[in-house]
Structure formats: C-alpha cells, structure tokens
C-alpha cells in the first residue's frame, strides 16, 4: 500500500479545502470500501481526510417535513432509527439487506452512496477495465457477466452499482446535499449517479473535493407503505442479483401513486419511470404490474451471462407491488 | 508515515506510534499481542476479526488504527473478567460451538454485539414487523450472525449456544 498522511477534518469546509487542493487526497469515512480498495491497489491516495467524526451524525426532521440524514450516520443507526422504520420502511429494509452487522456499524451514509462497483475485473488489477484505466477495455463484456447490468449499458462498461441503500433512496426521491469549494448544492438522486457512456471511470457527478453533508428525504406520505426486496445467491450477506424498492398508494383498487427503483441491473440505481407512468391511474392488479414491468424492461440489453435478470427483475417487481397492494387493501 | 495512537484494549490503555497503513486488526495482533481477533479474509468478508469498538461489534481488517485513535476496544479475550467466562463464551463451550476455533473469537464478539442490538429493539433483514418487538428466534440469530463465516461448519451449535444465552437471559 502506498504511504499516506492521515488527518481528521475539523469542520466540513476544512475537509473540502484539504481534498479540493490535492489530487491525491480522499475522504475517509468508515473505511469499509476505501480501505479494501487501498489494499487491492485500486485506490492510492496519499492523504486521507477523515470525515467520519464531523458533526454530520444526526437524523432529523427537515423544514420541508421530510427527514435529513447526516453523511456520517452509521448504516446500522439509520436502519434502526424509529422515524425511518415508520416513515420509510424500504430504506430500513434496504440497509438491513446490505453487508453484515459488524460492517454496518462502521459504514456511513455517504460512504454507502460512494461505494464502487463489485465487478470482479474492476477489483483485479491484472485484468483490463475501463473503469479503472480508461481505454484499457472491458473484461466483463466478453467474459463473466452474470452479475452485470442489463439496462443503460454502454460498449465501454456494464458494471452495476452495488448499494442497496441507494436503490431505496432512488425510489423515495431523496436528494444529496453537497458542499464544494464553490458552496453548497442539492443534487436529486436521479442526477447524482451517471450511466457509464464513454466515461465509465466516473460513477457520480460529484466534483473534486465535493463533500456529502446529508441526504434529504422528501415528505412522501405513502412511503409508509414501501418495501425493499433483494434477490441474491444466498439468503444473507451477498450483493444483489436484482433488487426492487417500491412505494405504492392504492385507492379504490386503483394506483393513485407509485415509485419503483431497481438495483443490480444498471450502473445507477434504476428508477423505473416508465413503469410508474403506466401504472398511475390504472388498476392495482398483478396483470397491470406485469405489463408495467415488461414495459420498463423492454429496453434491456441482456448478455448471455445475465439474461436471467430480465425475468427475475420482472417477477420481483410484480411480487413486491402485489404484496404492497395486498397490504393496502 | 507515522502517527501516534492511543487505545484502550481489553481494559488497558495503550499508546504507540504506528505507520498510518496499519489496520486495527494488525495493530491488535502484531503490536499489542491481542491474538483473539483473527485474520481470515482481510477484506470484511468473514467476520473473524470482529471485536467490540466502543461497545459495538465491528470488523477490524478494513479499519485503519489511526482512524480509531481514542477508541475502547474489547476483544473476545477481554470479555471474561479472568476468573469467570462471559456467558456467551461459556455457552459456546457448553454447546461445542466450534471445531478448529479460528472463527470463534469473532463469532463470540459478534454474538455479544448482536444481542445488545436486539435488546435495543433493532430489527434485522428477517424481522417482519419493523416496529414491533424483537424476538431472537433461530431465523433471527442466523440472519444477524451472517457476517461470521465458519469454515468448519459449526453453525448448528453456534445457533444453539446463542439461543441458550438468550433463553437464560429471558426465561420463557
Ligand atoms: C464484505 C462486504 C459486503 C458488503 N455487502 C454489501 C451489500 O450487500 N450491500 C451494500 O449496499 N453494500 C455492501 N457492502 C458495501 C458497504 O455498504 C460499503 O463499503 C459502505 O457503505 C461504505 O461506507 P464507508 O463509510 O465505510 O465508506 P468508505 O470506505 O470510508 O468510503 C467509500 C467512498 O466514499 C467516499 N466518501 C466517504 N464519505 C464521504 C463524504 N462525506 N462525501 C463524499 N465522499 C465520501 C470515500 O472517499 C470513498 O471513496 C459490503 C462491503 C463489504 C466489505
Ligand atoms: S464492466 Fe465496467 S468495471 Fe467491469 S470490467 Fe468492464 S469496464 Fe471494468
Ligand atoms: S478478516 Fe476481517 S472480515 Fe475477514
Ligand atoms: S470453528 Fe473452525 S472456522 Fe469456525
């Protein structure tokens, strides 16, 4: 591992200044992804600016009536928070489906958002990867791609985003509050992550030195009826093959409103806007859910290794929405 | 690059200079001789390195020691007061909850931490009612302990040991 200097940031502005002015600098939070990458040689920072002890560890009501979650809140604390459990159950469930108990006590909100793909070629310095080395080529496209993306892919990269939490945040229309050298800005989750296109080395639209301060959940009354379902190779402690976060508002048997996001299928958490639009105003029946899921997945570009994800995603969407509809009835 | 670190490990205060690249796991084992936490995978995947940091279970292989300057660390060894074993340790013995023993210190710290989490009412992935009371049945125990792998496959007895600890705490 490359030698590095370690400092604890004294306040958010200090953290931003330290990282913005030094190309080799990186923020450190719980370390559960960054330290792994430093061991593997994927990340080689020469300065770590520890932001895990900044006073960004609160979960509070936002002025807008939603909830503001500090960047340094631990995943375990967020999942267990009574307000989150009641108002945004899909978020609690997504967090509890991720990693393990002893990792979640270290992992933070911001670190979870910023975690990088688990594509095995990305993690293996001996194989070509456009995300690690732009222009090197993608080993997954002609290689093992069972875990890879079926939506929004490019000819350069078919990696998926591994976060469970981010899928719930996408469905619940969260925003990320960011502090940069030029001041503060709010980025809706839909604009936070990037599709790979021809710049697969960029996961997000954060600029150099931009520090996540918080995630803001808008008030969404029907999010009380939301759920997260994760399908994986073993019952626990594994990344998603496919996951679905959804919230459903049914009135008189019709879909008054709905939010759906998919995990494990794209370079970003995939908000299923097409399916949502088809469902709104229509009947809350498994047939309607199936038709909407099929419409969303019509654009899928499966590869031989991951073609199973298309029916798996469809069935999981139908399953989650049907269960939510039953709850409301 | 060197940095000063102060930690309280199993009740004693330790102050030392470490290379910033030293993980908490390597510091515990190589510098302080605290051999209870084990290095299984070194990538967060097996749980053998689990300890309690400020009372909460955490892996130590993906944590830099400098980032935990000032922390109180309890390893499986520090759970017993010397004369008597911790109830979780005793139940692991009574139930033959190990074979080679390599994963055991991590399993024990994880069990202590997770029982505490359940007592605080924290739900898990398999808890059906997120806001209801937590009952640690076998399914809950398995889910909450899934971050600890055992290559000897002693899982059946690990679950039995933990079930027994819980039963003794809250008799039916
Ligand atoms: C074995 C294993 C299994 C896992 N399984 C799952 C799983 O099933 N589902 C899942 O979702 N996740 C899983 N994870 C990933 C885990 O959720 C992440 O490692 C964790 O959330 C990262 O948070 P952290 O605080 O440790 O981040 P760090 O490792 O400290 O940082 C990660 C990145 O975030 C950046 N960063 C940190 N804070 C900020 C900030 N405030 N502003 C801007 N950038 C910042 C860092 O610079 C770094 O690039 C797993 C991890 C492991 C090791
Ligand atoms: S899918 Fe993306 S991350 Fe994986 S090898 Fe190809 S370029 Fe790299
Ligand atoms: S050695 Fe830390 S989790 Fe395996
Ligand atoms: S007892 Fe041997 S690894 Fe668990």
Shape of chain A: globular
Distance between the termini of chain B: 55 Å
Class from secondary-structure proportions of chain A: alpha+beta
Overall mean pLDDT of chain B: 96
- Continuous helix count of chain A: 12
Poorly predicted ranges of chain B: none
The gyration radius over C-alpha positions of chain B equals 16 Å
Question: Would you give the CATH topology of the largest domain in chain B?
Answer: DNA polymerase, domain 1
Largest sheet of chain A: 5 strands, antiparallel
- The total number of structural domains of chain B is 2
CATH topology of the domain at 225-328 in chain A: Enolase-like, domain 1
Low-confidence stretches of chain A: none
Please write out the topology.
The complex is a heterodimer of chains A (329) and B (172).
Chain A: E1 5-8, H1 12-20, E2 25-28, H2 34-40, E3 47-50, E4 59-61, E5 67-70, H3 75-80, H4 82-87, H5 89-96, H6 101-104, H7 109-114, H8 165-171, E6 175-180, E7 183-188, H9 189-192, E8 211-217, E9 226-231, E10 242-251, E11 254-263, E12 270-271, H10 273-279, H11 286-297, H12 309-328
Parallel strand pairs in A: 1-3, 2-3
Antiparallel strand pairs in A: 4-5, 5-8, 6-7, 6-8, 9-10, 10-11, 11-12
Helix pairs in contact in A: 5-8, 10-11, 11-12
Chain B: E1 2-9, E2 12-19, H1 24-31, E3 51-53, E4 56-58, E5 72-74, H2 76-79, H3 87-94, H4 104-119, H5 138-144, H6 155-169
Parallel strand pairs in B: 1-5
Antiparallel strand pairs in B: 1-2, 3-4, 3-5
One FE2/S2 (inorganic) cluster is lined by residues 98-104, 150-152, 154 of chain B.
List keywords for this structure.
heterodimer, A: about 325 residues, alpha+beta, Uridine Diphospho-n-acetylenolpyruvylglucosamine Reductase, domain 2, Enolase-like, domain 1, five-stranded antiparallel sheet, four-stranded antiparallel sheet, 12 helices, about 30% helix, globular, B: about 170 residues, Ubiquitin-like (UB roll), DNA polymerase, domain 1, five-stranded mixed sheet, about 15% strand, binds flavin-adenine dinucleotide, binds iron/sulfur cluster, binds FE2/S2 (inorganic) cluster
């Amino acid at each position: 591992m490359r030698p590095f200097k370690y400092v604890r940031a004294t306040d958010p502005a200090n953290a931003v200044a330290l990282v913005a002015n030094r190309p080799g600098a990186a923020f450190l939070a719980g370390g559960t992804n960054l330290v792994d990458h430093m061991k593997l040689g994927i990340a080689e920072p020469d300065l770590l600016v520890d932001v895990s002890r900044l006073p960004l560890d609160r979960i509070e009501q936002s002025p807008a009536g939603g909830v503001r979650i500090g960047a340094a809140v631990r995943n375990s604390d967020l999942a267990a928070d009574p307000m989150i459990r009641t108002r945004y159950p899909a978020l609690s469930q997504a967090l509890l489906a991720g990693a393990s108990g002893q990792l979640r006590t270290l992992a933070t909100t911001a670190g979870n958002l910023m975690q990088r793909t688990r594509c095995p070629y990305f993690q293996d310095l001996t194989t070509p990867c456009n995300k690690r080395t732009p222009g090197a080529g993608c080993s997954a496209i002609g290689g093992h791609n069972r875990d890879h993306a079926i939506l929004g892919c490019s000819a350069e990269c078919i990696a998926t985003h591994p976060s469970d939490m981010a899928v719930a945040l996408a469905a619940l229309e969260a925003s990320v509050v960011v502090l940069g050298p030029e001041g503060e800005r709010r980025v809706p989750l839909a604009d936070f992550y990037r599709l790979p296109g021809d710049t697969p080395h960029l996961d997000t639209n954060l600029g150099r030195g931009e520090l996540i301060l918080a995630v803001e959940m808008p008030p969404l009354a029907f999010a009380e009826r939301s759920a997260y379902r994760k399908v994986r190779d073993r019952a626990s402690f594994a990344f998603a093959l496919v996951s679905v976060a959804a919230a459903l508002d049914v009135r008189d048997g019709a879909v008054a409103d709905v939010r759906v996001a998919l995990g494990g299928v794209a370079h970003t958490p995939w908000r299923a806007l097409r399916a949502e639009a088809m469902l709104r105003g229509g009947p809350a029946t498994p047939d309607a859910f199936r038709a909407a899921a099929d419409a969303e997945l019509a654009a899928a570009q499966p590869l031989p290794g991951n073609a199973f994800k298309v029916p798996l995603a469809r069935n999981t969407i139908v399953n989650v929405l049907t269960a939510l509809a039953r709850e409301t009835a | 690059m060197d940095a000063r670190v102060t930690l309280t490990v199993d009740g004693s205060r330790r102050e030392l200079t470490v290379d910033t690249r030293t993980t908490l796991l390597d510091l515990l084992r190589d510098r302080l001789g605290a051999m209870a936490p084990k290095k299984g995978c070194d990538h967060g995947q097996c749980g053998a390195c689990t300890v309690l940091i400020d009372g909460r279970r955490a892996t130590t292989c993906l944590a830099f020691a400098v980032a935990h300057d000032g922390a109180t660390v309890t390893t499986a060894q520090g759970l017993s007061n010397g004369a008597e074993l911790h109830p979780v340790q005793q139940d692991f013995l009574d139930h033959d909850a190990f074979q080679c023993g390599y994963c055991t210190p991590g399993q024990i710290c994880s069990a202590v931490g997770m029982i505490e989490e359940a007592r605080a009412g924290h739900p898990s992935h398999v808890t059906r009612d997120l806001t209801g009371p937590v009952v640690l049945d076998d399914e809950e125990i398995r889910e909450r302990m899934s971050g600890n792998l055992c290559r000897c496959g002693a899982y059946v007895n690990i679950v039995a040991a933990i079930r027994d600890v819980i039963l003794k705490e809250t008799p039916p």
